[in-house]
Design brief:
The structure is a homopentamer of 362-residue chains. Chain A is α+β, with helices and mostly antiparallel strands. Among the domains of chain A are: 170 residues, 2-Layer Sandwich (Beta Polymerase, domain 2), CATH 3.30.460.20; 68 residues, Methane Monooxygenase Hydroxylase, Chain G, domain 1, CATH 1.20.58.340. Chain A contains ten helices and eight strands. In chain A, strand 5 and strand 6 form a beta hairpin. The longest helix of chain A is centred in the C-terminal third of the chain and has 66 residues. Chains in contact: A-B, A-D, B-C, C-E, D-E.
């Protein structure tokens, strides 16, 4: 499993005035999806820049139906014209827009006069071995929610579905509940990732015990790095939710806060699991190092056994290979078989000695 | 000793509406055990779904005896019909029910309008070498306590016994005291586990000192992992109890809080012991690594001693095995015995030198 | 130095009602020592259970001299009858008595209506190499102090002496001051232990530098484990004293609190020293591992030097030991001495090369 | 990449009275650059000491235009006369001046009666492989900002540019906004450094996996040291900004604080990245050590394979090189080829055995 | 550089009444130096015990000049008579005197009715390679400052000088400012120590990279231990100063607190540097261990190369040293030179193989 490398952060030119946007010009196309719903109707369509203008008018009509909620989903952050238009319609602060566009930002929550901004990182398994990583910015006010994503494709389909089929209370509750539902989807998608990492951990564990090799080291290393990444992504979410639970964000109703408490608990659980995995992975490293040392020990034992048996024997053979004229043993009839017997005994003695030392578990 | 692997967490489909239940369909049977008692009577029976309905009526009768307390113990979480019925009778929030059913959850405490929910993890030694791990959710209101367990079989028999025989103040005190008695049973069951881990630690310690081998490494590793698991289970309990001691949960009487303080102290003690064990286990790893290195040293010393003694001797034998025609030593009468003597002296000299270097402690 | 192993914690049967006493039946004898004093008189005697009853009456006489203070010292916790009697006389809560009897408990402080309970751990050097470890529970009210010890023999003799000889203000001050004097004695007894560990550290340090061996490893390990134990004992004391300094325990007079501040400072100092020792001991482990590696290096250098010198030489000797008929060198008159010279030069060359590489520091 | 070594801190003579200046006499030249602007005019010039006097008068004229803001940029801290003049004009406390001159100081913020002092550390990439490190002290009051730098050359050109071209709101806002813009420039310059360290990390990672050698160790070490330095520089900035967000510094308007929040977020992000890099670098060290051990294993395997194959073979050859008169094998016609075959089989057997043991992955 | 070993703490007999003094009887001589000054006069002399009595009278004269300040500097703590006299004159609490006399104590600050006590540890470089360590207790009241030192000789000469020459505001400010000036001197003296440790670090770093040996290990170890000591000394100072900045010590004027803030900043800086040094030293240990492993690798490579080249060659020579009667190669004319050529080729082949494996960087 590997994390799809995202484009590294594009920084504004150093010293540029605050709020400068750094657009990724390769990604000009910006899809706009508008969902409008109230307890009794639901409408979903893709809109153009021109229709955005119309939306503007409608939003500021005095007789606007207060219980209708707009969800504008912006996919792709490359089109400045669209972004500026949205900024204008919803009166978005220049720093807020910069936080949305200049990805990746650290997850955070900020309340402005007319809206609350939640920046989150969406991690999900695109296919079983690739983790996709994308910033999602959720901005919501009295009767609208705007979500900004880096690329098309997201984890919000179940929410769209619930809106359409009016499951649960989602259509009757306000914009803050919708924002909750979206962030809940994002956090829920961490669990399948944890599950697949859990499987990797188990694979690694049995590999460690059966036959650790260099590849195992690389896999442990990759795992640790991945855990580091996920941890860095999930931790700030905790601060976001605990801020909601602690502070009185005016735009978040008390009834919604009960649900936020639930997401908070999930976040804590994810952090818990991650920290647990990290400790396990750190333990893997220790076990790996010990195994390598043990293997070295085994190798050295083989070498030592071989050397200890054959060096003395070779020496004896060498002695009787000397060319002294006067070596009486050489002339005896049974000298040779006697010596062979002695050598065999020496060899066997060595082997028994090693057996006693416990070196023959190999 | 090993922890019985529990089924891994079953996640709700990602993006499902909050409160979605994930039922383990293999476990449909849900046992319902009802105990009702007041200071002067006690009744215990297994009830059916139909009887649950009757209970409903009785609970909401205006003339209901206020000092009678119900304890409903639900074993098995696989029957949605039963769960929904209970939810309805006791007005349980959808998120609360999800926390109860979608096991395992992190231990926590939550107060709702009509009840307090305590989620706990029950760890106990089923037999001397197996730790059983199960979520117990305790939900109690003014005059009822409901406990939800994953499987039949629990650690509550002593409490049932005390209720029956009216030991102590348990029958005179309210539902919060019963909840305390139950959670106290759960926490108390951690101690025998600590004890058995303590014995494993001592075994390991003497194995480390006498003869560490690869199996020792595996056992240290298993121990560390087990400690990690228990620690992860017990820590959140601490937060639960300290929240009770700190906050004013309306449903927990001040007289009960004195007892909660006692459970809190036990929890702190368990955490203390666990952290202590973890440090000891970490020390084991260091000692193990050092021992492996020491062993390698010993192996290498044997090899070096053998090589250093026999290599020069073999060389000398090799010299006199050369076939030069003009080697005057070969022709002398005493050349051979003199050379043998010299070789013996060289060998002894080497041995003495190693003795002086302290390599012969082996 | 080793810590005398205490009996491991005896747990109440799991699920037993709170306050169940777990008595060590091997230790039934419970000594009762009563000291009563006021500013102008002092009386010390051992009393029986019957006399305890008389004490009861006396305590509740209306005309009881308010400025007389009782100190009841209970040695041995095996006699339930005595304990229950004391509980009755001094109106001790069932949980308090359980904390006193079911040793060892984590040090803590608790205020009840009529008394304050301080649980402490008494560590002292029984002889230069044995640390004795015992729980002391100090319970004091308006005009009485009760101390409970596991075994006869304690560190309170200097306090008894000061009471008798009326040194300092101890006889004029209240029961809280006496409690302070007792706990002060306990904490002061940690210092000689620190001192003797300091000496062990210095011994180990010089052993590490001069000649580390397997025994050194074992001693480092033992030291670390001992420090872990002492640390675990002293840390909770800190919380006890800081709670006194912070909270307003009604039974502790402000004038006494100045002295508690002093004990608190001592505790901090002990913790400081322990943490320092722990870091030093951790450093020992690193140095030990490095030394083992260095030693291995030295062993291997010897082996390599020997092999590198004699392998080529043996090869050359082997070449001239071959039986080819046509080997002209063998027939020359000076072939043999010339070859010996060449061999010597090769050997010396190797030695010089190793010298240059710095391998001959050995 | 390396950090340009700065002159180590020059300490005032120990015990000197507080506020003693320690001037770097090698750097006497002090450039004074004055920028004055209001919403409708902009003026930039280098001024002399004499002109500084004139500025003094002007500043204290009663009819001074309140909405004109002065920015005095002092480059070089070697000229005491100039520094004292500035101290006098702007009523700078002696300790403040000492903090400005006796570089380097830890970043901090301090409010005095007439001004706020922010001490910051400017880190920027002078060229791709050199990090320049310089203290910048920003002192601002009602209508003035003074910046003190150690050397000419800074990261403020974009700010000068924005002032000149009146981009953004910078000319309409007060002195506190200008101070923000300057500190924002400093913090923004940490990002390119992080980027270049990120590249070094990736280089190192692939070097670690492909072919770690001693140079890799040195590079890891250098990297860790560099991260340590940057971390030590950036952490106190966090405290500075969080103090602004938390406290009510009178001189910083609420509208400016929104922007400070932005710089604060950047600082947190930098710290996050640094801590992440530090963990990765620590992981590198583990992997490196494992790799070295693995390499040793490989070397030893080669040695063991060679020894195990040739030692027995050499021994056999040695046996038949013995000079016993009665060795019947020597006289058989096929003794030699048979023995050669046996030797080959032994050799092949050994190789197969090693293959089975998995030692031939090399 | 080494720290002069101080006498280890002399403990009061265990259980002695609080405030018991433990006098170092080897050091009976106690020097008394009295400086008295006001804004317009200055007087400095050594006084005797008798003159101390006179001072007593003078202090309590009703018409005492309020703006005159006494600084009594006590060097040596061995003379109980003098100490008791001072205790009496300045009404020093028994515990305060014990803290002053029973050195070393942890740095702390305490306010009593009539005075403030600051306990500090004075570390200074007596000569370039010896750090002297001494407890200095500063006790100051409305118009007096008393300093207690263990030995004659201190770091206060610059303060005496400033008093004499009336530099700065020192003579016009109160006793709290003088106390500040003294503690400032003590803290300032940590910087030269840091500097010299910085140099040691740099020496060690280059030693590590060029040629690490056993001495390097010892030096790293010593360095770590020294840093541990300094850290343990400086940390509590931080608490002292932050207590002054936080609390309202009545005896410390607000104008003085600005200066304390400066000392506080210095203390933070010292701690920062120490922690940085500790991390660097920890990194040294890693690098050292890696270097030792690398060296082992190098040694083993030499051994393996030699063995791999000469073992097969020796085997071949052994084969042709066998005495079979029927070995046709032996009888050929060119058998010998052909074999020599084959051997050379084998040897060269081995060398090339090792070159390819990269083992010849040695």
């Amino acid at each position: 499993m590997h994390v799809k490398k995202r484009n590294t952060r594009k920084y504004a030119p150093v010293g540029a005035r605050p709020g400068t946007l750094v657009l990724d010009t390769n990604k000009e196309i910006t899809d706009l999806e508008l969902i409008r719903f109230s307890s009794d109707h639901f409408e979903q369509k893709n809109i153009s820049l021109a229709e955005l203008d119309k939306l503007n008018e409608e939003l500021h009509l005095p007789q606007k139906k207060v219980n209708e909620i707009f969800w504008l989903n912006v996919s792709g952050l490359g089109n400045e014209q669209v972004l500026r238009k949205i900024q204008e319609i919803f009166r978005i602060h220049e720093l807020t827009l910069a936080d949305i566009v200049n990805v990746p930002q650290r997850p955070k929550i900020e309340e402005q006069e007319d809206y609350v901004l939640i920046i989150s990182q969406m991690l999900w398994l695109k296919d079983p071995s690739t983790i996709s990583n994308e910033q999602v910015s959720i901005l919501f006010g009295k009767n609208f929610v705007i979500t900004f994503q880096e690329d098309p494709g997201d984890v919000f389909d179940p929410v769209r579905d619930r809106l359409k089929k009016s499951k649960g209370t989602i259509r009757k509750s306000g914009s803050d509940y919708l924002a909750y539902a979206l962030i809940d989807s994002i956090i829920d998608n961490y669990f399948p990732i944890l599950e697949s990492i859990g499987e990797i951990l188990e694979d690694l564990e049995s590999a460690l015990i059966s036959n650790p090799d260099k590849d195992t080291l690389k896999r442990i290393y990759n795992l640790k790095r991945q855990l580091l990444n996920i941890r860095r992504t999930i931790w700030p979410h905790r601060e976001v939710f605990s801020a909601i639970l602690r502070d009185e964000f005016q735009s978040i109703k008390k009834s919604t806060r009960v649900y936020i408490r639930d997401v908070y608990d999930h976040t804590i659980e994810i952090i818990d699991v991650i920290e647990n995995y990290r400790e396990i992975a750190a333990g893997f490293m220790d076990v790996y190092l010990s195994s390598v040392s043990n293997k070295l020990n085994d190798v050295m034992k083989v070498l030592t056994i071989i050397s200890t048996i054959f060096m003395p024997l070779s020496f004896i053979a060498g002695v009787y290979g000397m060319n002294f004229e006067n070596m009486p043993e050489l002339k005896t009839t049974y000298g040779y078989p006697v010596l062979l017997t002695i050598m065999t005994l020496i060899g066997l003695g060595m082997i028994l000695w090693f057996k006693k030392k416990g070196w023959f578990k190999i």
